Amino acid sequence: MTALIIDGKQIALDTQIEIKRRVSALSARGVMPGLAVILVGDNPASHVYVSNKVKSCGAVGMHSVLEQYPADLSERQLLERIAALNSDAAIHGILVQLPLPAHINEHAVLEAISPTKDVDGFHLLNAGALMTGQPRLRACTPYGVMKMLEHSNIAMRGAHAVIVGASNIVGKPMAMMLLQAGATVTLCNSKTRDLAHHTKQADIVIAAVGRARMITGDMIRPGATVIDVGINRDEAGKLCGDVDFESVKSVAGAISPVPGGVGPMTITMLLMNTLEAAEKALLS
Length: 284
Description:
Order of helices and strands: EHEHEHEHHHEHEHEEEEHEH
Largest sheet: 6 strands, parallel
Shape: globular
CATH architecture of the largest domain: 3-Layer(aba) Sandwich
CATH topology of the largest domain: Rossmann fold
Number of domains: 2
Strand content: 15-25%
Structural class: alpha/beta
């Protein structure tokens, strides 16, 4: 068996065509969706991430603002800037790039962002809305995974989905989204006994634990769909996921690669959240 490769890069491009169309429709009504990205410090990886986000905004016709601050910016100064952006009608989404310097309380910063502009989907009100089946702005990575499954015609209703990794950013919101799609969900974590026992029963396996190539072919039921959210470096410094791609692709029915899988979708769903926030602002 050779698995269908779920091409996140192509799905992202297809989704961005829809976003661009809706951005044009909003612009015709006098509303230009706007995203503010805040970067504090000089983390090289963060610079790459925010650059890609700003570039992607331009590709779909959105307005974006990149604000860069030194690592010694105080928490109070950052919160004041967020408060100003909350009141800025031209900004519909606010993203504070993580990680932040150690002296800044990340939780306080994320909660300071207006829930209506929380395009990362991390605010407690947005997490709670998702939990109760009334999603507003959704966490970008699991939102992207859902789009990948839908685009690839992977049946979720009635399927058994096993998620490996229970973070607030991916695992937990992923579980809520799959539940709402009608799946039966098993949420595993680092303390789960006999992980393979669970993954072998799954129709859908989503790996989001941050351990290079920990999901191997002998842990997968033949024909299952495997989505790899992990981004790691192996012993040789090569980019890889949480899934051992070579051994799993000969067993799975469908699999997403790393790179070129979930990564492009995360940025695309950030754009989608910004667009949806702008559409809701127009109606309010």
